[in-house]
User: Fold this.
Amino acid sequence: MKESKNVYQIIVLLLFAVMGVACNSGPKTVDAETFIRWVNNPENGLIQQKKIDHFTFSIQYQPAELIALRELKSRKNESWNAADLIRFMLHAKAYNIA
Assistant:
């Protein structure tokens, strides 16, 4: 009984250690161009195509961050503050605009 309790404690300790290492790695960041290339890469599953007869239909999921990046690029000469960007991203997520 005592041995099984020790084994259980070791397993729990190892799980916490693994979770600590995994959670400690932090979020990954990429530059805008890398993110755009990743979203536009069909291998990542965000672009789906269906061919029916002579027609090919294509649909792409566009994250709000991508839409915000495009909007920022189109408005280079305008000044944006953090509140404007957050409002735009919330609007893009709520209405799924492109």
About this structure: The helical segments are 2-24, 32-40, 64-74, 82-95. The longest helix spans residues 2-24. Residues 65 and 89 are 7 Å apart (CA to CA).
